[in-house]
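Bench notes, afternoon.
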Amino acid sequence: MTSKTLLITGASSGIGAATARASVSAGWKVGLMARNAERLKSLGAELGASALVLQGDVTSESDMTATVSDLVGHFGGLDAVFANAGLGATEPGTEAGDLANWREMLEVNIWGALLTAKLTLPELRKTRGQFLVTGSRAGRATLKGSVYGATKHFIHGWATNLAEEMRDWGGRCTIIAPGMVDTPFFDSEKPDGLRPDDVANAVIYALEQPATVAVGEVYVMPNPKGR
């Protein structure tokens, strides 16, 4: 069992909440960051002393700075980060897309991930830690006019470059790339999709590899015929 500390953004539901539960079960202490204070408090109460609730917005530099400071002050260090916060498109494609939605999606999916990395890397360097980020099948595919898919293409390209930067001091960067996941991210249920626990298991797999092993990407697809 480990006693290391993991920061999870987008922790209040779906993949983030499932990863928090799986991480605590594996012995990790977790920092739970998201905008939804009510859901965070409920999850924090469920997980007990192993979790610290850190309500905030990943697109806010002041919120992220406070999150890192509070987490390190509470648990004594930071060993891994899962940049999981993300937002989808309200309308498909480019011509029908909503400009306000695009701006928020770019801020959360791209700026939020960059800001999370920028402000946690100094702490991860101290522990030769690991940065994980949620990519997507959409970041490996061509989807008609998809702005959301383009944000995930960015994540895949940038995280691959970040892995090379972190390699210089013994750090590791991992892309967690799921196909469709049955979460509140979608407006309707996706019974043939992955479950949040499936993606959480992929995160734990990457975290539990020895320090001499760098997992660049875990690509997880649903297999509905296997149910």
